[in-house]
Amino acid sequence: MSLRTYRRKQYPVYTSTERAGLRRAGRFNAQLMDFVREFVRPGVRTIELDRLVHDYTRDHGHIPACLGYKGYPNTICTSINNVVCHGIPSNTILRDGDIVNLDLTTIVDGWYGDQSETFMIGETSTAARRLVQTTFDALFVGIRAIKPFCSIYEISRAITDFAHPLGYSVVRDYQGHGIGRKFHQEPGIPHYPHQHTKNQILPPGVCFTVEPMLNGGTHQTTLDPRDGWTVRTADGMLSAQFEHTILLTEDGPEILTLTQDGPQEGCRF
Ligand code: MF3
Ligand code: CO
Ligand code: CO
Predict the structure, then answer these.
(1) Nearest ligand to the C-alpha of residue 210?
(2) Could you tell me which of 63, 44, 45, 41 has the C-alpha nearest to residue 54?
(3) Residue 221 parent element (H or E)
(4) Over the stretch 167-215, which tens digit does the pLDDT of each residue have?
(5) Is 0.90 topped by the overall pTM?
(6) 107 CA distance to ligand 1 centroid (A)?
(7) How far is the CA of 177 from the centre of ligand 2 (A)?
(8) Which ligand is nearest to the CA of 76?
(9) Phi/psi at 197 (nearest 5 deg)?
């Protein structure tokens, strides 16, 4: 066998100056989530949340990353109930019992920050609450599996081994991603274990998102042919997601989008 067989994939590795740029972007994105959180309430229209996030981003001199990205029409993604991801803000009113994921991405001095949270609107069902809690915990189970020179496989293995026994499926059609001066770059971070990720090794200095989507029923999804964006569960069951941008340092994972006011590791919803 040639040496080539063993050659490992290389990913963008950031210097300390570049890491400072990534940290600033993550910090602003987190501040933006802190700003919008109190507005995610029964009676609000998702388009109003979109406007609030857009204006706050612009007022601080930064760029809404999703607006116009591959033709995406808005600033944020608002994914309600059986919507897995990429829900487009609209006149839809958030109602008591809904769950909604807000996914925010900004560009700060050329660097991207990307995170999402699922919110429970008013009183939700026990099933919805349990799904949201498990998805939040699954994100941190994934983050805690990250170590210098770990494989991507280990992250997805940890997430799936956590979610499956609790009765949830892990979405396979959408994954985490490298992030930096580009929104989506290498490495792809599947949340479901794939053999080919076993030799994909993460050295200190790589930056990527972890963003597991867990479903109440099947892992399979459908893409809305009318808008080309909205992703739903194939069986109409609930889906939840949480996302953070992670910088892998020599000391382990650093969560760049962790908010002061937002849900901390171990929190109970
Ligand atoms: N923020 C999403 C992610 O986590 C991507 C949204 S792309 C958009 O990667 F165009 F739909 F906004
Ligand atoms: Co992302
Ligand atoms: Co995102």
Answers:
(1) 2
(2) 63
(3) strand 221-223
(4) 999 999 999 999 999 999 999 999 999 999 999 999 999 999 999 999 9
(5) yes
(6) 13
(7) 6
(8) 1
(9) -90, 0
